[in-house]
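Budget justification aside, the reviewers requested a transparent look at the raw inputs and outputs of the sequence design task funded under Objective 1. We therefore reproduce one unedited record. The lines immediately below are the structure tokens for a 247-residue chain.
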């Protein structure tokens, strides 16, 4: 074919038509958006075919897949944010045991500093921690820790309570005994209280006891309550005393 024939063909057909830039971009965007839809449709068809093969409805398969995705997301959130379990508060019994342990550590250090013999017993008595310094194999507990009328013991008990409060942040009501002093005093107070209770029942008149410590007054109040009578404390420390009332 000659050059003139080629030119005639080109002029007849004209230059190739180019797409408009905006129309081209719109077409490409539509095609891109159509891809996920096609993939989703393909996955859905695949799920339906698979469920049909095993005899499970396609809707159940879709719900199962959605549920698994939700559980996975929840597990990931829990791992990221940490456990949501509430922190358990210590029970009353465990708190009392903790008080006793702290008191025992404090008293052991005190005995070492003072170079005194003695072992520490820890227990729980009702709603209080009970700590006692008792005789050890190395020797007897110094009765100087009790003092006249138990005054040194009362001071040592208050000091121990402060040490426990400093360590736990909670006010302590622990009871401290040294060499069985409180146990012996308790037995004596019960005997005294029973005698006064009998007098109140026979005369019908109230009776006052001698001034006592808080520990001693509590022992008397407990015994009066058991007998069915009433009691109250009067006066100011250190001269506070118990009054036993008729029924």
């Amino acid at each position: 074919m000659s050059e003139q024939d080629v030119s005639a063909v080109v002029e007849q057909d004209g230059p190739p038509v180019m797409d408009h830039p905006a129309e081209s971009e719109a077409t490409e965007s539509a095609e891109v958006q159509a891809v996920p839809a096609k993939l989703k449709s393909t996955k859905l068809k695949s799920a339906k075919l698979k469920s049909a093969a095993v005899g499970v409805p396609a809707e159940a398969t879709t719900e199962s897949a959605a549920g698994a995705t939700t559980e996975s997301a929840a597990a990931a959130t829990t791992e990221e944010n940490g456990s949501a379990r509430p922190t358990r508060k210590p029970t009353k019994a465990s708190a009392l045991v903790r008080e006793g342990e702290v008191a025992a550590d404090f008293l052991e250090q005190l005995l070492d500093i003072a170079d005194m013999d003695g072992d520490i017993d820890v227990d729980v008595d009702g709603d209080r921690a009970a700590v006692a310094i008792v005789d050890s194999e190395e020797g007897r507990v110094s009765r100087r820790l009790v003092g006249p009328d138990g005054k040194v013991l009362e001071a040592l008990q208050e000091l121990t309570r402060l040490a426990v409060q400093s360590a736990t942040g909670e006010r302590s009501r622990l009871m401290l005994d040294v060499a069985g002093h409180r146990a012996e005093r308790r037995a004596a107070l019960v005997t005294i209280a029973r005698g006064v209770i009998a007098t109140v029942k026979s005369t019908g008149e109230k009776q006052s006891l001698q001034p006592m410590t808080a520990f001693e007054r509590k022992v008397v109040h407990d015994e009066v309550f058991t007998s069915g009578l009433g009691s109250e404390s009067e006066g100011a420390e250190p001269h506070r005393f118990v009054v036993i009332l008729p029924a």
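The beta strands are 119-125, 128-134, 175-178, 207-208, 230-234, 241-245. Residues 92-179 form a domain with the GMP Synthetase; Chain A, domain 3 fold (CATH 3.30.300.20). Computational costs for records of this kind are itemized in the attached budget.
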